[in-house]
Fold these 3 entries.
Entry 1:
Amino acid sequence: QVQLVESGGGLVQPGGSLRLSCVASGSIVSIYAMGWYRQAPGKQREYVAEITSGSSTNYAGSVKGRFTISRDNAKNTVYLQMNSLKPEDTAVYYCNGRDYSGTYYYPWGQGTQVTVSS
């Protein structure tokens, strides 16, 4: 069964850093793009960042310059390095892969909770 497992979340003070990991049950090398998404309480899931199979990256405006997405195809893993965290970054973070048309490859996992608070 194909699945994703996210980890690395936690409680951090404003200005702090966290590194999230997303491990896929199978190879991600041929997946068009792998991305991170987040959902805050009472809000819809939103796009955070994406990295293509050619390692091109794209970010939501709210995280650009603070977050960095990367992938290790040999480990079937995608990372999200989050720096200069703000309280508004508090959310459950999910990863997923998509094809060129936008169809997601995986069922949504449980995500990992990130809480930014003093």
Entry 2:
Amino acid sequence: QVQLVESGGGLVQAGGSLRLSCAASGSILFSINTMGWYRQAPGEQRELVAIINRGDITNYADSVKGRFTISRDNAKNTVYLQMNSLKPEDTAVYYCNANSPLWSRGYWGQGTQVTVSS
């Protein structure tokens, strides 16, 4: 099992920055391959924001490239999402995800709200 706890969400003005954190704990942390951030706005489907794998290879949604940076600290079992130049359309609940080809399913955090005012 893996437990994921997100933090760092909040209310920020357009153009501002936030840093999200996701701390992982559990009995199978050693087998995590990818960790990522997804978001879901009201009335919309959940979408990938950024993902990072064990080799620190990253991938970003086109809408956040150049503004968001994902990173991980393996010693702390934590993944971060640095969000700069935030826009109102970034407003959503942001979810952390952990996954592995060895698992039958991925794991999700409870989500953290990010609201960007114009």
Entry 3:
Amino acid sequence: QVQLVESGGGLVQPGGSLRLSCAASGIIFSINVMGWYRQAPGKQRELVATITTGGNSDYADSVKGRFTISRENAKNTVYLQMNSLKPEDAAVYYCSYTRGSGYARYWGQGTQVTVSS
């Protein structure tokens, strides 16, 4: 089992920045993929960004150039630096962990990001 604890959400004005953090604990394999997904009211959960233990990252087109995902493997922690936030970025952001394709995906409890003036 894997437990994920997120932090860093909150209220920010359009154009502002936030940094999300997610720490994983439990049975963590040395090769894994961690990432961030988000879900806005009335919408499906969508991929924001993922990163492998090797540092390979992938982003949704809507956040490319504004968001940066990073990780500290020694701490089993993944970060999401969000810059130039837009109202449409507002959502509950969920951290995820998986060993890879075909394996179970674990989720954090979610952290609310609100972008409003």
